[in-house]
């Protein structure tokens, strides 16, 4: 099985998780980036409204992968605008999708999972599992901290990988 880890990260926490997932599943890793960065307040406002942002060109094709891991921070109780754009532009037909979320508060972001899953499934994908980790923007996760969390989640889903 071929694995792809796709993510957006503003503070570095989602990126650290993505890197650990990529190591665990021996997957390719791709960062989604905005063409023009926006302020934290602007990002939260646009996310709250469910808006998309202009992202840099995607230099990969999800058709080349069996499993797609999608990572996003939570902004204003919503997925980030770069991930919104990615989800709207990709065909997930026959793909197993795993969603991982980072968030600064301790509330499990079920509405974010549900929103991402709905968009993936409307494009032909199947969301297998989701994962949430509480983070701190002032003190980003280390790879050691992330690895402890990710290893169990990946092992739980090993039959798909």
Concise account of the structure shown:
Helices cover 36% and strands 23% of the residues. It has helices spanning 13-25, 40-48, 81-89, 110-122, 143-156, and strands at 3-7, 28-31, 67-75, 78-79, 96-103, 126-134. 41% of the residues are buried.
Task: Give unreliable regions as ranges.
Answer: none
The averaged pLDDT comes out at 89
Order of helices and strands: EHEHEEHEHEH
**CATH level 3 topology:** Rossmann fold
CATH class group = Alpha Beta
CATH architect. name: 3-Layer(aba) Sandwich
Count of domains:
1
Terminal-residue CA separation? 6 Å
Q: How much helical structure, as a percent, in the residues?
A: 25-40%
- Which word captures the global form? globular
Biggest sheet details: 6 strands, mixed
Rg, Å, rounded: 14 Å
- The fraction of residues assigned to DSSP E strands is 15-25%
Fourth-level CATH superfamily? Flavodoxin domain
Identify the quaternary structure here: single chain
**Class of secondary structure makeup:** alpha/beta
User: How many β strands by DSSP?
Assistant: 6
**SS element count, helices:** 5
């Amino acid at each position: 099985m071929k694995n792809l880890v796709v993510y957006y990260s503003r503070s570095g926490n989602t990126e650290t998780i993505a890197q650990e997932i990529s190591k665990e599943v021996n997957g390719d890793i791709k960062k989604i980036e905005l063409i023009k960065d926006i302020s934290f307040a602007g990002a939260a406002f646009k996310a709250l409204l469910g808006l998309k942002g202009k992202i840099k060109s995607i230099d990969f094709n999800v058709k080349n992968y069996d499993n797609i891991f999608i990572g996003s921070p939570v902004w204003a109780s919503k997925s980030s605008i770069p991930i919104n754009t990615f989800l709207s532009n990709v065909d997930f037909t026959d793909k197993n999708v795993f969603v991982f979320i980072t968030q600064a508060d301790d509330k499990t972001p079920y509405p974010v999972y549900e929103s991402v899953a709905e968009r993936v499934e409307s494009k032909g994908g199947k969301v297998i599992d989701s994962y949430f980790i509480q983070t701190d923007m002032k003190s980003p996760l280390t790879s050691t901290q992330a690895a402890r969390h990710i290893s169990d989640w990946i092992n739980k889903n090993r039959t798909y990988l």
